[in-house]
Amino acid sequence: MSVDIDSNSPPLQMNTEGTGEAAAHILAAVSILKGLNELNLESLEIARRYVDNWISTLVPLEYIPGMAEFVGGKLKRSLMDVFDEISEEELGETLEILTTVKRSLDMGDIPYNIAEAEVRMERVFRALGLEMNDFGRFLENSDLLQKMRRTVSLFALAVGIASVWDRKWIAESQ
Of the candidates 47, 115, 56, 42, which has an alpha carbon nearest to the alpha carbon of residue 82? Predict the structure, then answer.
């Protein structure tokens, strides 16, 4: 199925400011509910919608077949379980920075804060039980822009999968 878009129309502008911080706030609240054994499906669904909204600010993602399966297979923690290693504020800032970094990368520019973005992504990856070195097969033979776009894509996949990841569900599916 294809969709025709009138190329003479101005591009659709979406306000993306604050989507990362909002997702981090909701995830932290859901994490607290989980700790109090008050977590319910409605709360999880709200968190997932906020994460999906943040991911939509990064579209288009540079996906290589097998990325999602690889990330999902390596993931060790839910996104609601990372707040013992990173703060709500740090997660929110990381998600916000990545939105602006991705926008720069999409324009063919290397963002001024690329080193900070890499460090922040690595901290979240580690909190989720992932290591940057494991992603080499998706990043090799890439120029810097492509490598960074793929790293952001891997990060978005990790955050998305970790927002729905459940240890019980994984055990039952095996």
Answer: 47
